[in-house]
Write a structure and sequence with these properties.
Strand 1 and strand 2 form a beta hairpin. By secondary structure, the chain is α+β, with helices and mostly antiparallel strands. It is 26% helix and 33% strand. The strands form four sheets. Strands 6-7-8-3-9-10 form a six-stranded mixed β-sheet, sandwiched between helices. Strands 13-12-11-14-20 form a five-stranded antiparallel β-sheet. Strands 15-19-16-17-18 form a five-stranded antiparallel β-sheet, with no helix packed on it. It has two domains: 220 residues, 3-Layer(aba) Sandwich (Rossmann fold), CATH 3.40.50; 132 residues, OB fold (Dihydrolipoamide Acetyltransferase, E2P) (Beta Barrel), CATH 2.40.50. Helix 2 crosses helix 3, helix 2 packs parallel to helix 4 and helix 3 crosses helix 4. The chain has nine helices and 20 strands.
């Protein structure tokens, strides 16, 4: 495995900047041809990790192997990787074709081969017709395509992407997500993609490494990290959740407001009477004008907000001293208006139960989502 082209391995990698530990004893194995995203909030260490893979930073301890080769001390231009940056870093005085050809010329590729390789790379990203334009004459999406073509023209074993879609508007960003994933699948090149956008990571990745404070909090495919978060932080960062603080009970949690919730699928084994967090995703909450008789968990409240998101309605329901987020399909029969009295209900299978070790992080994030 370690000798396969495109394999990426980090073993006990640590990087410090002064007294700050940016990456803390990280272990990671990326399979050849895999699309792996490093996902996390600002300052979690994801960009530092990418820069160490690229050769722009060196680890203080640990080892990095790319395609089975130890790369400590090897400069970026001698590694079989290329990087696509958020702001593309195109040469403004060069045409599209000249930008793409630059790396080939630096590597001494024969002139007779350069034109064919550039044409092939531009064709991959549908930019052949704009080969003679300068970067300033193109949109952000077109510049991003050129940056990808320039990075792929040498067919590196690994492509590193540092938030390359961050400067694009939402519609174009969603289109480029599809294009990048299709391109990666077709070429079979290993992609390591850095982002802070969980929807972006979920839509593109084979696996996601969710980072916090310099370490990987959870590593898995999108479905696993969404359906089975390993910690309260992951549950709050991937998708959205309603959180309750309280203490663990035999059947679930007794919230700080005295409400008892039943949980049948605890993600962490929290002993009874210890501080705990319960979480329920907004799409798992049923909204009704009448008291449901067949649900394990019920909370009454008043509709305090209604927002429209395409085919989904988002309700904010004030229940006691807290606000609950509820997502329902637009096609749902029942509609509610501001001030309506409602019941929120959910099954025991939809309650996540965690220890309270990350309570400060997730409760702050939960409040920000509801505001």
């Amino acid at each position: 495995m370690s000798g396969d082209r495109g394999a990426v391995e980090l073993e006990g990698v640590t990087k410090r900047f002064g007294s700050m530990v940016a990456v803390d004893s990280m272990n990671l194995l990326v399979q050849p041809g895999e699309f792996l995203s490093l996902l996390g909030p600002s300052g979690c260490g994801k960009t530092t990790t990418l820069r160490m893979l690229a050769g722009f930073e060196q680890p203080d301890s640990g080892f990095i192997r790319i395609s089975g080769q130890y790369v400590q001390g090897i400069p970026p231009y001698k590694r079989d990787v290329n990087t696509v940056f958020q702001h593309y870093a195109l040469f403004p005085h060069m045409t599209v074709a000249e930008n793409v050809a630059y790396g080939l010329r630096q590597k001494g590729v024969p002139k007779s081969d350069i034109a064919a390789k550039v044409a092939e790379a531009l064709d991959m990203v549908q930019m052949s017709k704009l080969a003679e334009r300068k970067p300033r004459q193109m949109s952000g999406g077109q510049q991003q395509r050129v940056a990808v073509a320039r990075a792929l023209v040498n067919r590196p074993s690994v492509l590193l992407l540092d938030e390359p879609l961050g400067a694009l508007d939402r519609k174009l960003r969603e289109e480029m997500q599809i294009e990048l994933k299709l391109l990666q699948s077709r070429l079979g090149i290993t992609f390591v993609f850095v982002t802070h956008d969980q929807e972006e990571a979920m839509s593109m990745s084979d696996r996601i490494a969710i980072m916090l404070d310099g370490h990987i909090e959870q590593l898995g495919d999108p479905e696993t990290v969404y359906e089975h978060p390993s910690s309260a932080f992951v549950a709050g960062f991937i998708g959205r959740n309603n959180f309750w603080q309280g203490v663990a009970t035999e059947h679930g949690i007794r919230a700080d407001d005295g409400t008892n919730f039943v949980a049948s699928r605890p993600e962490e084994d929290v002993p009874n009477d210890l501080p705990a967090l319960a979480a329920v995703r907004p799409e798992c909450i049923n909204l009704s004008g009448e008291l449901p008789s067949n649900m394990a968990n019920v909370a009454s409240g008043t509709v305090a907000g209604v927002s429209h998101f395409g085919d989904v309605l988002q309700y904010v329901v004030t229940s006691g001293q807290r606000d609950l987020l509820v997502l329902t399909p637009r096609a749902h029969v029942a509609r509610f208006a501001l001030g309506d009295s409602v019941y929120c209900s959910w099954s025991a299978d939809d309650v996540y139960l965690f220890s309270a070790r990350q309570a400060d992080i997730v409760m702050a994030d939960s409040e920000n989502q509801q505001s």
